[in-house]
Design brief:
Length: 93
């Protein structure tokens, strides 16, 4: 059995996402159709992950989340924060 293709799973600057933390998505709230399209594109980009997703920022802790808001996200009027564990577990049996 061969090792999984490292390009087939989501990364944060070439580092795999942590098992927990926060996903922060910036911009306007997408319509249902836009969100489905973006999630499907993400799945196509990372087929080895076998999941849907959205592009965003990752923060391992609340302190890192606060730092992102203080630096990277000042210009955005709409920002959504998701608990990564909750997103991963959606639809799990």
């Amino acid at each position: 059995m061969s090792a999984p293709d490292p390009a087939a799973t989501p990364k944060l600057r070439s580092t795999p996402l942590g098992a927990s933390g926060y996903l922060i998505v910036r911009g306007t709230e997408p319509s249902v159709d836009e969100a489905r399209y973006a999630a499907a594109r993400f799945r196509d980009r990372f087929p080895g992950w076998n999941a849907f997703g959205l592009s965003g920022y990752y923060a391992a802790t609340q302190v890192e989340t606060d730092a992102l808001f203080g630096n990277q996200l000042l210009a955005w009027s709409t920002v959504a924060i998701y608990v990564l564990d909750d997103l991963v577990n959606v639809g799990s049996p």
